[in-house]
Amino acid sequence: MNMNINASVLIFRDASCEKWAAQCLEYDISAQGDSLHDVVNRFERTLIGNIVLALEHDEQPLWNFLPAPHKYVEMWNNALALEQSLPITIASDELPANVLKFPDRVPRGQASLRIAA
Length: 117
What we know:
Elements: E1 4-14, E2 19-24, E3 30-33, H1 36-56, H2 70-77, E4 80-88, H3 97-100, E5 108-115
Parallel strand pairs: 1-5
Antiparallel strand pairs: 1-2, 2-3, 4-5
């Protein structure tokens, strides 16, 4: 049951709090940070944390997340693509014990990144 995750992540400056924000389009998951590097790292930890939590409970990762609101899709369409992508991998030391014997249950993939002006 190897799940492949391909995600689109929009990065933008959130004027309401003067921080950087990262919003996934396929799954309504987001993070904030003080810099571009910080927001990408925080988004990665948030996404991986949600996947690990689901695996701990023998659930399909990300099954309960709706897509992001449409305004982010519109922002994505006008955003600049970044050369960097974010690999979605989970280190074995982060995996719950009930998954270690079943590595095919661990999703993998990548996230394309775009930055909105």
